[in-house]
Amino acid sequence: MEAHLHMWLSLLLRWSHFIVGIAWIGASFYFNWLENYLQREHRPAGIAGDLWAVHGGGFYYLKKFAEAPGELPPTLHWFKWEAYATWISGMALLITVFYWNAQTYMLNPDVSGITPLVAISIGVLSLLASWIFYDLLCRSALSRREWLSGLLILAWFTLLAWILDSWLSGRAAYIHVGAAIGTIMVANVFRVIIPAQKDMVTAVTQDRQANAGHGRKALQRSRHNNYFTLPVLFIMVSSHYPATYGHPYNWLVLLVLSLAAVAIRHYFNIRHLPGSGAWPLILAAVLLASLVIATAPLPRSVSRPGTSATATGTSQAYAIIRQRCVTCHALTPDFEGFAEAPLGVELDGEQKLLRYADRVYQTVVIAHTMPLGNLTRMTAAERQLIADWYGGLD
Asked: What one-character-per-residue DSSP string does 10-32 give?
């Protein structure tokens, strides 16, 4: 019953996180699009830009004031709760999935012998350290050089991914990099962007000029959030693709994917500018193609020299799988915390093993992400036997 309730709690939190995340990111993308496509020439006095649009069977007319309006309307819409709800639901999901089952999801005995409590502490500290580093950087003189500050932010998260992978499982390392970026994004909203907007609103009611410095800082943080978005979205779905977080150089895989994501986002940010070109998309395509080639698995002939690929039969391979994997991957799992086989992959039988041979080879031999956290202590020799068996399949 506990496993069943945990599954539903995880599902509902993930669904909620997905919904509010769409609301936040959708609003961010829309306002960036709106800012980029405002018509700014020959506008009336006091209007910085306007735009006509059609949607849902109607016409819309939007305009942006060059400064604040003379008086505020009775209803003023704010965009902040989407960000807060995304972070709150994401942290609840992190606790429910990873911290609740830290022994299973946080640890990798092949890289460190830490306890679940230490692993959780490392995860939480990574979020705090990331915000402190980022905030100090943005408050320093270095932030005036956008390219330099961008490179330093990229370097920080690359270093963070490498450090986390040295202590935690690859999946936990990835999710904490994503959580760290998400924490920075929502802290930007809470501590910089919304206070600047409140100052602007207060300035109108008090008939004074808004603090221009606050506005510049809010714009910078908003721009950073815009570029953070696509890497975070990849990390949100990365747990379904063990070839990424399970790669021996998973931190480098994450770096290349993030660079491609930033390039794609940059293209959509500048595409309205004259002579911008499609070079960011070309760069992203080259990076992604290079990653596909570099992470391609070895061909089936992976046996050791002098070893016959057909020598390892399905019965021998299944004996290993039954001992190391079937506690979870069965019609009725014995492993505490699982009410059903993860991802529906059942391996309690030789025919089932043959059905999922490709997936077993990918996760057991190539990515080393299964058994989960290697809790059942599958040895290197056993992984090689699985490789020999797979290499002999027709």
From this structure: HHHHHHHHHHHHHHHHHHHHHHH
How far apart, in whole angstroms, are the C-alpha atoms of residue 194 and residue 199? 9
Q: Specify whether 143 is located in the same domain as 227.
A: yes
Cα-only R_g, the chain: 25
Closest of 270, 291, 296 to residue 281, by C-alpha: 270
Closest CA to 179 of 221, 244, 131: 131
Q: Cβ distance 341 to 75 under 8 Å?
A: no
Pair 393, 272: CB distance under 8 Å: no
Q: Is residue 365 part of a domain?
A: yes
Range of the domain at 319: 309-391
pLDDT of residue 240: 85
**pLDDT at residue 1 in the model:** 64
Domain boundary among 233, 255, 274: 233
Please tell me whether residues 10 and 125 are part of one structural domain.
Answer: yes
Domain boundary among 215, 233, 251: 233
pLDDT digits (tens, 9 = 90+) for 291-326: 999 988 766 544 444 444 445 688 999 999 999 999
pLDDT at 305: 44
Q: Helix, strand, or coil here: 58?
A: strand
| Low-confidence residues of the chain: pLDDT under 50 | 301-310
So what's the pLDDT on residue 309? 44
Half-sphere exposure of 378 (CA within 13 A, CB side): 25
Rounded CA gap, 243 and 362, in Å?
A: 7
pLDDT at 194: 95
- Residues ≥6 apart with Cβ < 8 Å to 328: 335, 338, 341, 342, 371, 372
DSSP string, 308-343: -GGGS-HHHHHHHHHHHTTTTSSSS--STT-SS-GG
Confidence at residue 204, expressed as pLDDT on a 0 to 100 scale: 87
- The alpha-helical segments, DSSP class H, found in 189-278 are 194-205, 212-238, 242-245, 250-270
pLDDT number for residue 260: 97
Site of tokens 């330099």: 148
